Amino acid sequence: DGGITQSPKYLFRKEGQNVTLSCEQNLNHDAMYWYRQDPGQGLRLIYYSQIVNDFQKGDIAEGYSVSREKKESFPLTVTSAQKNPTAFYLCASSIVAGNNEQFFGPGTRLTVL
Amino acid sequence: AQKVTQAQTEISVVEKEDVTLDCVYETRDTTYYLFWYKQPPSGELVFLIRRNSFDEQNEISGRYSWNFQKSTSSFNFTITASQVVDSAVYFCALSEASNAGNMLTFGGGTRLMVKP
Questions:
Q1: Is the pLDDT of residue A96 over 90?
Q2: Which residue of B has its CA nearest to A88?
Q3: Is A10 exposed, middle or buried (0-12, 13-18, 19+ CB in 10 A)?
Q4: Rounded-to-integer distance, Cα A4 and Cα A19, Å
Q5: Does B43 sit within 8 Å of A99, measured CB to CB?
Q6: What is the pLDDT of residues A24-64, one digit of tens each?
Q7: How far apart are CA A54 and CA A50, in angstroms?
């Protein structure tokens, strides 16, 4: 089945630690996205990538980093510089052209202890 | 700058009632796309509909219908004869054609609770 997988589903981190969230897609989509969702709020864009080895900052990129070494993979690292990292993180992918819909993964819930 | 507003943060209805979720958007582009997504308790966003700015025809899909009115910059979503399984958070989103990155701007979401 084609789709997007994210791992882990739940992640706990101590303050000061970096953590990496995984996102893999087998939809052959060029574009991939990372969003952050806080309780009772909408989604905010962290980073996006339209092509391998290229990515752009979204609205709230500070304290986060990404890489895009393969078309299928777009991992997100939450660094210790992110002051309030506890949130629900969603990865998405889409066809680049034509403002098509984005398809979402199941999400990773990150909690900082 | 683009903006999406979902003024209803939470709606509660009894099963079989009809319910309308409001979405108002702002954009300077003449070509844009509007979307609705459903987020059930599991957390994953499920795509429901995509509509471009040149197509103002209303759309119906089973118990779901969408009313797009450019004159009021609204793209409202109606569920007819609601069911408990419709309970979820619903998001409206906007993508501008001038946006090369296909980025979505989301509204804050409306939590719908359908009681038996």
A1: no
A2: B43
A3: exposed
A4: 20
A5: no
A6: 999 999 999 999 999 888 899 999 999 999 999 999 999 99
A7: 7
